[in-house]
Write a structure and sequence with these properties.
six-stranded mixed sheet; about 15% strand
């Protein structure tokens, strides 16, 4: 991997976007690396959660300008294929089996906001800037819009997407893109503490269930999905061990 760094800390997988010279803007190679990384870690059962962060002064500036310049001569069909690869990247992030925790700072522009929308929990440095900058270039936040609208209400997001206005962590929290803020230089260990007491299987199955419920509009299907999920978990070694420890304290 040329543009990603991966390390393990107490069963937490830390993945770092590593193109600091362009504020971690993504190009075709980085998109492919992210897709492959988040597909492969689904098979790593030892992972409790994944933390995604950015190297350097900002989390992600969206699409790389040099990559965008190369698309000027693309045909419509070539643009479709290229955009589908971008969709595949976001889908790989969204469908990661493990809880995905985003740690952001500096600036999150354009497609970087799509990455945030695929995270289950996002911590942002208080002074972080956010912007749907696509309209400034005569484009639209098209591919990311589906993932954004799964996370945020249209009434919050629509004015920001259409205006291209810069907003900040406090606004992103109100929209539902960010779930907690920090002053500066938060330690990975502090993030890990928030989730380390939870059961890995319990968190994975909770994420799986929520994704399934979002995709299924019928209440009868909800009954089946929820009752099957809790019934499956109740008999796992993880749940029985943790329940017994809890009961022993009473």
């Amino acid at each position: 991997m040329n543009y990603l760094k991966k390390q393990l800390l107490n069963n937490f997988c830390i993945i770092t976007l590593n193109r600091p010279e362009v504020k971690n803007a993504f190009n075709a190679e980085m998109i492919q690396e992210i897709t492959e990384m988040f597909t492969s870690i689904n098979n790593e059962d030892n992972i409790k959660a994944v933390i995604l962060k950015g190297e350097g002064t900002g989390f992600c500036a969206g699409a790389d300008l040099a990559w965008m310049k190369s698309m000027i001569k693309y045909s419509f069909d070539e643009n479709i294929l290229d955009s589908q690869k971008l969709w595949d990247m976001f889908a790989a992030l969204k469908n990661c089996h493990h809880p995905l925790i985003g740690q952001v700072h500096g600036a999150v522009f354009g497609g970087g906001l799509g990455i945030l929308a695929c995270c289950d929990y996002v911590l942002a440095e208080e002074k972080t800037k956010f912007c749907f900058s696509e309209v400034k270039l005569g484009l639209a936040p098209a591919v990311i819009s589906s993932f954004i609208l799964q996370k945020c209400a249209d009434s919050f997001i629509r004015p920001m997407m259409i205006s291209g206005e810069i907003f900040y962590t406090i606004n992103a929290q109100a929209m539902g893109l960010v779930h907690a803020s920090y002053l500066d230089n938060i330690l990975i260990e502090d993030i890990v503490k928030k989730f380390s007491d939870n059961g890995a299987e319990g968190m994975r199955e909770t994420k799986k269930l929520l994704n399934a419920l979002h995709e299924t509009p019928h209440l009868n299907d909800h009954m089946r999905l929820t009752t099957e999920a809790i019934s499956k978990l109740r008999v796992t070694e993880e749940a029985q061990s943790r329940l017994q420890k809890f009961l022993d304290k009473k």
